[in-house]
Amino acid sequence: MPDDNLSNSRIIAAYRERTPGSSELARQAQALLPSGISHDARFIKPYGIYVERAKGPRKWDVDGNEYVDYYGGHGALLLGHNHPTVLAAMHAGLEHGTHFGSNHPYELGWAEIVRRLVPCAERVRFTSSGTEATLMALRLARAFTGKHKIIRFMTHFHGWHDHMTAGHTSHFDGTPTPGVLPEIATNAILLPPGDIAAMRAAIDGDDDIAAAIIEPTGSGFGTVPHSLQFLEALREATARKGIILVFDEVVTGFRVSRGGAQRAFGITPDLGTFAKILAGGLPGGAVAGRKDILDELDFDVAAAKGREKIAHPGTYNANPLSASAGTAALGIVETTDACDKAIAYGAEIRARLNEVLAAERLPWAVHGSFSGFHIFLNPRGRDITPTTFDPLRIPFQELSAGAQALAHKFRLALLVNGIDVSGRLSAFISATHERAEMDATVAGFRAAIGMLRAEGELPRS
Ligand SMILES: Cc1ncc(COP(=O)(O)O)c(C=O)c1O
Questions:
Q1: What are phi and psi of 337, to 5 degrees?
Q2: For the segment 6-33, what is each residue's pLDDT rounded down to a tens digit?
């Protein structure tokens, strides 16, 4: 983002005027943290907001500005901020102690509810994050099959470990990103998302594939969706060749249905990876799946087979506090309509925002599925109608175009109007988003478009 794009902008001026406290903290952060941040998604020019408290679907920055929060703890907060039952479980957990260096009863309750909800989950191994969960899933698949390569899909994100860096936002040719060994990159077969023929050709043409990993609703929670037929074909092709199919349900798990995407779609993978909602807003992850595959972690099974097990320490694996929060959160998911409520809000807000676009005669679209929405700014100027937009007809490169200058300004304009979405203009909806949030979002969306138009960024309607 060139700074000269920002210097004359009234949107940036309004943003700066509202957020002097954040500006000052961002200045201090520059001396402490690379780019002043701790997660790449928090990189915004001129600086990101600093938030000091949150409740339900809202959050407040250090300058006292209120936001309808669609970042939702990077998707972890299906139940909104500070759900009282989850909070009570955390408080009780704190009283018990935060680390016993031993097995504990809380991990059993946590694993039990995962097994009850998730179709593939015959066994569960807890990790500390989603990144660790996908790393373990691939290691399990390689150990189990004795094969080397993995299939991934361009734009799909599975965390930041070495096997997962290329092909998410760049390096679509499979070349490694800085710091990653070329030998690792060459073992990943990077395929275009949603392309059944390319997927079948890759699988049929190679007998050294251990696993295929996929975000089951499409990358970025459906920013780049694929058809159900694609998922079915992938299940069929992987099963036929003995390739381990991994659904990365770090986002979709316990969100698109109680049992995640695999339950919603009726397609059972061999392994699923989980984090976010799993741990009730605290750090935590898990691999769940077929017992014979997770047996690669089992001391006795490995000894009986005369082979080496996969080593898996991890100081914070199944941390008791995360177990308490996670069990409480999953209990609410299991026994209430939390998923359905957020999904219903999603359908309605997508329709209402598209009505705004139609009224404004803007050839953009708001699309998505389940409890998400994605604002498509139509970077190639296609002839589209917001209310009938079909993202499956748009090339993935355009859907995932990321932070173009216009998207960046629109995001800041939304923040100025009290709406926080991600840098890709995507939203995670919680079960606490209600009518007031819906109305505030529609009004803020319209006002943000007005700001862009006043700045000469949009065609006159
Ligand atoms: C689909 C998916 N997989 C894996 C991860 C990595 O999880 P974590 O950030 O807990 O390491 C993420 C994180 O956003 C994700 O969205």
A1: -95, 30
A2: 668 999 999 999 999 999 999 999 999 9
